Each structure stands twice: as structure tokens, then as C-alpha cells.
Amino acid sequence: MQLSPPQSQESNPMLARVQCPVCLRELPGADINAHLDRCLQGGAEADGDGRAEAERGSPPPCKKLRPAAPAPAAPGCSPLQQQGRGGGSSSSIAQQLAGKPLADKLRPDTLGDYVGQERVLGAQSLLRPLLEAHEVPSLILWGPPGCGKTTLAHIIASSSRKNGTRFVTLSATSAKTNDVRDVISQAQNEKRLFKRKTILFIDEIHRFNKAQQDTFLPHVECGTVTLIGATTENPSFQVNSALLSRCRVIVLEKLSVEAMEVILMRAVRSLGIRVLGQGEQHSSSATGSPSEGSEFPVYIEEKALSTLAYLCDGDARTGLNGLQLAVQARLAAGVATGSSTDGALITEEHVKEGLQRSHILYDRAGEEHYNCISALHKSMRGSDENASLYWLARMLEGGEDPLYVARRLVRFASEDIGLADPLALTQAVAAYQGCHFIGMPECEVILAQCVVYFARAPKSIEVYRAYSNVKECLRMHTGPLPPVPLHLRNAPTRLMKNLGYGKGYKYNPMYKEPVEQDYLPEELKGVNFFKEQKT
Ligand SMILES: Nc1ncnc2c1ncn2[C@@H]1O[C@H](COP(=O)(O)OP(=O)(O)OP(=O)(O)O)[C@@H](O)[C@H]1O
């Protein structure tokens, strides 16, 4: 925490004892910020001073509120590099790959290490100078998975903490409205007492419902908190329009192949893996220069890296996970066979396997995406429940957005099942909401249930076809559209009544027998859209 401590009589405020303005206890200036955080949340203990609290280690303020970032790494040096480059050997690489996923370990801390996204973060962009000046506006970061939304928030967190701003993280998948209220009240206290700003980062903000989003709207408006939301979903549909209008929407793109190559190259360098150009031999006897100090050097083909950069489809997490699995599999194979002198070589095939395990090959924006959804639609239409499930799983296991599939099911419910089973639409909407509430992987079975229901359901395109006929009729019409017949018009004013609006209209409930009355314009009299065939 970087808060300026409250005034003390002594010249060095960090050494002087100061009084906490909340609980009025005295404690060393150096401890005031840590103490204050706990005190504002009612967590400071009644006895002892701030140092004693710090030494005892107090519990995190709230289970769902975690401080945003770990201790910053030295500038320009990734955590893996900090672990030392004595590596290159299988044992040190295996150690580095243990624990947290590689993607997390390599998450950059500074804008300088953030790769790509030139359009929104380049030197000419609006955002970059603001971030560099620590003037962070409320932002919605919108982009596909693994493109760097959380990473950008993490960088903002690191730099804003240096500036004395608090940074609090909530995940919309687990946080409750009360958690948001807690953050807001802390932010109000901080602002009122210490003029200290709070940035609230909400991951997957689209998972918050409207009421939850409403909770922080006024506080964003009056500047109590600066909101940074991350979402993979189009914010126009998923974020309150009032909230949206108070935030800048930053559209992050899939990382380019070149950007992915930079990220992967950085990863292999951090691990101490040597990259082999085309035609280079990997054995230590052939190169004469195994990785320094390694008993079992590890190499990767340049081609393997470029293939990985291409196949991960702009998702850095997928690329780094694929690399990690490929390396771990090769190391395990080396250990199992006891081979040692020539080291391990990671080829294109190995990274494909690594990717296949972490992420079934599936191009979410490319042709495969459309091919698979088309195959699913046709299998359900053909009432083949077996094939329907297969295509669903191909998409979900490949990383498809479950809400995309759910939206297609809503459409299918009306287009193909229609009034043959009107409950299908309810099923589809419920499936969409279920997916929205719980996300992957739990929502996969919701979609599977809906898909099988649809494959088994009776089918009718009666309404779909009739509506297409109406659209066709409108499209083919030349000249002005026929006026609404006077008797069908509402007549809320005397003038309208005088003009004949509503005149002659037969109010059906007043009649025992079926009413003879025209509802179509005069020139369409007798047209039946349910019988007409669309040409
Ligand atoms: N622009 C980038 N520069 C460098 N590394 C990146 C970048 N984007 C992502 N990464 C790497 O990929 C990992 C995953 O990225 P991140 O968590 O930021 O993705 P995201 O967009 O928040 O994805 P999701 O929507 O799935 O949460 C990071 O830990 C980091 O190692």
C-alpha cells in the first residue's frame, strides 16, 4: 500500500508513531496503511500495534476480495527469468514448470512487456498516455479469451499501486452483491478520509446481473470507484447501458501470429530452452554446444514455435499451455527412457499434441466454427441425437463459447421445432440462462440436454415458412405500403374518431359467434401466407 500516512510531529513519518483516524490507536507510521486496510474492514485487533498485526499476519480482508497483484518483478525481467537462467537442463525446466501454469507465471507487469494490441495501446492511442499518467478512466475491456484483458488490468494494478491507488479485484462468477457493497463502502471511506482512489476490477463482468451492475453505477458516476470490467461478451448486450455510457469500451483483438511468436519466444527463453533453426541438429555432439550447465538439454524447433503461434488462434493462454504440456511430455518421456546425452527435442508434432490436449484443435473464428455449428443444426433437424451430441462436444471441447451455441439453439427452437413443441423455446432460453449463470465447464450438460431434447422433438417449419412468405411479400411490394385499415386503428382522441379511426371495428369478445372481419389491408385480401410457397 502506498498511502501517505496521516500527519505526525516527527520529520520522518515512517518512523514516527501516528494515530489511526478510525480506531484512534497509535502505531508506527510505516504500518499505518496495512493497519488501515484491516481497520476499515473491522479486522484490526483490539490490542497490539500495527507491527504486531503485520507479524501475526492477518487474514485476507474478505475471501472474495483479493489484493490484485503479487509483488512486482524487477523491471523487464519475467518471474521465470528471476528464477535464474542456470536452466536449460530438464530438471530446472521441470521445476520451473511446476506449480502455477506457465501463462500465469509469465503474465507481464509492465506495459513495456505487453505484446500487441497496438490499435488500443500503441503510442498514438488515447489510452496509453492516460495509463502512463496514472489517469485511469473507467474501462470495459472486451475481447476474446486469452487476448490479454486480465493482463492489462494486472499491469494497471501494478502501476496504480505505485501511485497510491487501491486496486481491488472481484470475479463476477463468485462475488455477491454484498461483496460489491463492501468494496464500495471501503472505497468511500478511503476517499473521504485519505483522498485515496480505488480501482475495482471485475472479471467476467457480463456474469453480473442487471441489479448487481446497478449497485455500482452511482459510485462510478460520482468517482468513488474507477471501474475496470473484463468481458468476452459484447458489452452492448451484457452491460447496463447506463454503466456502459460511463465507461470507455476498449476492444482488444485476438493476438496476431507475430505477437504470439514474441510471447512464445519469450517463454522458451525464460525456460532456457534453445530454439533450433531449420536444418540445425539438436544433439550436443552435433552442435557441440548444449545449453550451458545442463546434463539433459532441451531444444525446440523454430517451426514448432511458429505452428503453435498459428494454431492457438490468438489465445496466449492456449499457446502457453500447449507449450507447457509439450515440454512436460517430452521431459517425462526422456526420464522414462533414461536418455540423457542428446537431450530432448520438441518438434511440431509434439506441440500439436500439447495443444490437442489442452485445447482440441478448433478455429473459433474460422471455417471450422461454421462447419461445426451447421453440422449440429442439421443433425438436430435430422433427429440424430447421437451426431448432435458429437458436434456439440466438438465445439465445446474445442473452446467454443457456450453462449454462442445456446443462442443458436434458441433460434433452432423456433425455426425447426416451432409449434410442433412450443416448449422447445422455453428449453432453449432456459439453457441460455443456465449457461450464462454457471459458465463452462458446468454448463456443458445443460447444452447437451437441450440438444438431445431438440433432436428428439417433433419438427415444424410452419411458422418459419409463413413468416418468410410475409417478408417476401413486403420485399416484393412496389410503391407505398397499403395503409392500416381504418377500422383496425386505435382512436384515443376525438379528432381520430372524427377521422373514422376504429369505425366499424367488431370487438370479438362481444360476439358469441365467429366474427366476420378483415384484418389485412384491402389489397391483400384473400392472401394466405401459410399456404403461399416462398419462391
Ligand atoms: N498482450 C499480451 N502480452 C503478453 N502476454 C500476454 C498478453 N495477453 C495474454 N498474455 C499471456 O496470456 C495469459 C492469459 O492472458 P489473460 O489472462 O490476460 O487473458 P484474458 O483476455 O483475460 O482471457 P480470459 O477472457 O480467458 O480470462 C497471461 O497470463 C499472459 O501470460
UniProtKB/TrEMBL annotation:
Keyword annotations from UniProtKB, A to Z: ATP-binding, DNA damage, DNA repair, Metal-binding, Nucleotide-binding, Zinc, Zinc-finger
Q: Where is the composition biased (Low complexity)?
A: 74-83, 90-99
Q: Which domain of life is it from?
A: Eukaryota
InterPro entries, alphabetized: AAA+_ATPase, AAA_assoc_2, AAA_ATPase_RarA/MGS1/WRNIP1, ATPase_AAA_core, DNA_pol3_clamp-load_cplx_C, MgsA_C, P-loop_NTPase, Rad18_UBZ4
User: What are the BP-aspect GO terms?
Assistant: DNA synthesis involved in DNA repair; DNA-templated DNA replication; innate immune response
Check the record and name the Gene3D superfamilies matching this protein: 1.10.8.60, 1.20.272.10, Classic Zinc Finger, DNA polymerase III clamp loader subunits, C-terminal domain, P-loop containing nucleotide triphosphate hydrolases
In the record, what terms sit under GO molecular function? ATP binding; ATP hydrolysis activity; DNA binding; enzyme activator activity; single-stranded DNA helicase activity; zinc ion binding
Which segments carry the region annotation Disordered? 46-106
Q: What PANTHER family does the entry give?
A: ATPASE WRNIP1 (PTHR13779:SF7), WERNER HELICASE-INTERACTING PROTEIN 1 FAMILY MEMBER (PTHR13779)
Q: Belongs to which family? A: Belongs to the AAA ATPase family. RarA/MGS1/WRNIP1 subfamily.
Protein name, UniProt field: WRN helicase interacting protein 1
Q: Identify the species of origin.
A: Nothoprocta perdicaria (Chilean tinamou)
